[in-house]
Design brief:
single chain; alpha/beta; TIM Barrel; two-stranded antiparallel ribbon; binds NADPH dihydro-nicotinamide-adenine-dinucleotide phosphate; binds 1,5-anhydro-D-fructose
Amino acid sequence: MKVLKFNNGDQLDAIGLGTWKSQPVKVEDAVLSALKSGYKHIDCAAVYGNEAEIGKAFQKAINQKVISRENLWVTSKLWNTAHKAEDVIPALKQTLDDLQLDYLDLYLIHWPVAFRPDLHGFPESDDDFLSLQEVPVIETWQAMQEAKKQGLVKHLGVSNFSVTKLKDLMGKTDNPPEMNQVELHPFLHQENLLEFCHSNNIHLTAYSPLGSGDRSTEMKAEDEPSLLENAVVKAIAKQHDVTPAQILIAFHLHRHTAVIPKSTNPKRIQENINSAKVNLTDEDMQQIKSLDKHYRYVNGKFFETTDGKYSNIFDE
Ligand SMILES: NC(=O)C1=CN([C@@H]2O[C@H](COP(=O)(O)OP(=O)(O)OC[C@H]3O[C@@H](n4cnc5c(N)ncnc54)[C@H](OP(=O)(O)O)[C@@H]3O)[C@@H](O)[C@H]2O)C=CC1
Ligand SMILES: O=C1CO[C@H](CO)[C@@H](O)[C@@H]1O
C-alpha cells in the first residue's frame, strides 16, 4: 500500500474508507469489514451523524485484535457550527467520545464557512451564517493547535480550502495545515492546487473519487456526468482487467494523494482497496488528463447566501 509520510515520521495509508451517507445501521459492519480487508485509514466527520456507530466498530476491531489503535488512522472533521475558539475542543471531545478514542490521528476544519453555534441542521437563512470577520479561520486554527497540545489529536488540517485560503491561513501561523481534503477525480484534476500543496509540504486527500452517486437528488445536477460509466475510464479498466472504480482510485495513487472511496458493501470495500495493485501507465494518465472539465459533484452551492458572505467559496 502506498503511504503519505508526515514530518514526524507518521505514515497514512493512501487508500481509506469514506463514511458520508453510510447509514448508521450499516456503517458498523462496513468499517469492521474494511478493517478486516486491510484498511487502516477511516475518514469520518461529526456532520455525517454516524460516528457513534463507527466507534462501536473500532472497539470491536481493537478487542478482536483485527487492528491495534497504533496502526489505525482516524480522521474526523470539525463542523461549521463549532468554529468559535471556545467551541472547538468540546466538539472534538464529542467526536472522540462517539468514536470511543482518546485521540484522533487527523482533525480537519471541514469547510472555510462558519454557522451560528446554536444552529441544528443546515442553514435556512443568511442569519444562520457567521462571517469570516466574526469568526476568522485563524481563531479556529489556534484552538485546534491547543487541542493538539493537549494530546487530543496528532495532526491538523483543513478541507475544501483553495490556494488563496491556504495562503491566507499560512500567512498567519507558524503551524501550517498538514492536509487539505478536497474533491479530486478525472473530471476535476485541480493541478494548481496539487502543485501548491505538494510544494508546500501539504498532503491532499481526494474525496468523492467515484462521483458520489448516492447523494440525495437535491444535491445532484440533472445532467450530472458519470465517472464510473465514462468510456475512457471503462476502456482503461478493460485493458488492465480491473473495474472502472479501481482505475478511478488508482489515479490518485499515481498523483501521490490519499483517496477515500465510500462503500458499505463488503465486496466493493475489498475491490476498492485492491486498487493499490493497479499500475497505471503514463499513457493511461495522459488519457485521463484529457477528461478534466473542472466538474464538481460537491459544488458548495448549499453555502450561498443572498448577502454574498460565502459567494465563490472555491475562489475560482
Ligand atoms: N471533506 C468534504 O467536504 C467531503 C468529504 N467526503 C468524504 O469522501 C468520501 C467519499 O466520497 P463520497 O461523496 O461518499 O462518494 P464516492 O465518490 O466515494 O462514491 C460513493 C458511491 O460509490 C459507490 N461505490 C463504492 N465503491 C464502488 C465500486 N467499487 N463500484 C461501484 N460503485 C461503488 C457507493 O455505493 P455502496 O456504498 O453501495 O458501495 C456510493 O454510492 C465520503 O464518504 C467522505 O468520507 C465526501 C464529500 C465531501
Ligand atoms: O463532507 C461533506 C458531505 O456532507 C456535507 C453535506 O451534507 C458536505 O457539506 C460535506 O462536504
